[in-house]
Amino acid sequence: MPTHIYDIAIIGAGASGLQLLYELTQVDPEQKILLLDSGDRSTKSWCFWEDKSSSCFPFLVEKSWHSMTYRTSSGKTLHSKITPLQYNYISSDRFFDYFFTEFIPANPNITLVKSWVKEIQEGGDLHSIVCEDNSSYYAKRVADSRPQKSEDPALIYQHFSGKFIEFEEPILDESSMTLMDFSLPVSTPEMAVFHYILPFSKTKALIETTVFTQLPYDKEAYESIWQNYVTTHYGSQKYKILSIEAGTIPMGGKTLIKNGRVFTIGAAGGNMKASTGYAFTRMHQDAIYRAQNRSIKGPKRFRFYDKMLLKIMQNEMNKIPEVMDRLFTRVQTPKILRFLDDKSSLLNDIGLLSQLDIPLFIKHLLR
Ligand SMILES: Cc1cc2nc3c(=O)[nH]c(=O)nc-3n(C[C@H](O)[C@H](O)[C@H](O)COP(=O)(O)OP(=O)(O)OC[C@H]3O[C@@H](n4cnc5c(N)ncnc54)[C@H](O)[C@@H]3O)c2cc1C
């Protein structure tokens, strides 16, 4: 019999692992929690929209926007207020800093171990977690956020190539973030490219080239697209690069969703919206439910809509700018955001879907 048994072990101190850690501690601060992490953390900007009254780590939100910009592939700019929603930004630096320098040290029931987890050996009431250095840990429940590898050749990826920059002159409109800008004509049948902008002040912003494609990450190509975008939109304005944000997420693919006493969380647990890549608030909802031992059952129709969009991406990627243009020019942005968050009513869904290119969707429905 092992000498030390944890109530729960969390594998991975990333977005989902730390959110679960937080919510478990809110429910029962006496639980003995083991947090196992490889220590490998990349910089990310976690953004999400929610009602003002919602509460996804409000004390970590560094900036909120109440307006959003969408720029069509023909260069038309659409600004819209998104009230009662707001678009929030949490930097991974601040998130990690809070957890590792404040939250974990203040909770003696949490044990943080830096190690690479090799496997979980499931038992009846007790499960063992075996690490690369051959150390083993025992826990009654295990939450696993290790990423799952997909072998699906049709899988679409969302690649990010962004830079935090500071202009010499105060040229930015910091009141509105740009969710998608398709105006740079660089999309091809293999990849749909748009730009995403978070203006933090009149001089500082994250400008990110975002690519939907089945192709692997192409650093040089995305770098050149980024330069092209900045030159096209900001001309000869001088700027310096403060830091970079790069990464890839799979859009869909198989997730090994296990439930019961050994379960998956985060992207590995299917908490990332396949067609958008947004995951932060979904992981938070999942963490609350897991901590309270409740199960989430959302309407299945949103997965169906997602699959439709992914099918179009897989077969006619060149249609994506057109699909998005049509959506944002015909439907109010807050309605789109609620739809993308799986929170719209069936009536609203019908209204929104009726604005899309119906024959295109039917074609892929029948495929
Ligand atoms: C560049 C980028 C920007 C993003 N921006 C947003 C955004 O704005 N909004 C949004 O909602 N989503 C965003 N996402 C998507 C999603 O929210 C993030 O990918 C999020 O980090 C996923 O959380 P996670 O817990 O599943 O994985 P991670 O945050 O990657 O955490 C997994 C953890 O497990 C650890 N680990 C892995 N394998 C092992 C092992 N074998 N043993 C021990 N530890 C291990 C890793 O070191 C890591 O700490 C973004 C993703 C990327 C890549």
Describe the structure.
This protein is α/β, with parallel strands linked by helices and 367 residues long. The chain has three domains: 5-44 and 90-148 and 255-291, FAD/NAD(P)-binding domain; 156-251; 301-366, no CATH class. The protein is built from nine helices and 17 strands. It has helices at 15-27, 92-106, 219-234, 280-291, 301-315, 320-330, 333-340, 346-353, 358-366, and strands at 5-11, 33-37, 45-51, 63-65, 67-71, 77-81, 85-91, 110-114, 117-121, 127-131, 136-144, 156-167, 176-181, 191-199, 204-213, 239-251, 262-264. The strands form three sheets. Strands 1, 2, 8, 9, 10, 11 and 17 form a seven-stranded mixed sheet that branches. It has a seven-stranded mixed sheet with strand order 6-5-13-14-15-12-16, sandwiched between helices. Strands 3-7-4 form a three-stranded antiparallel sheet. Helix 1 (15-27) links the parallel strand 1 and strand 2. Helix 1 packs parallel to helix 4 (280-291) and helix 5 (301-315) packs across helix 9 (358-366). It binds flavin-adenine dinucleotide. Flavin-adenine dinucleotide (FAD) is lined by residues 11-17, 36-38, 40-41, 44-48, 116-117, 145-146, 160, 245, 247, 249, 266-268, 272, 277-280.
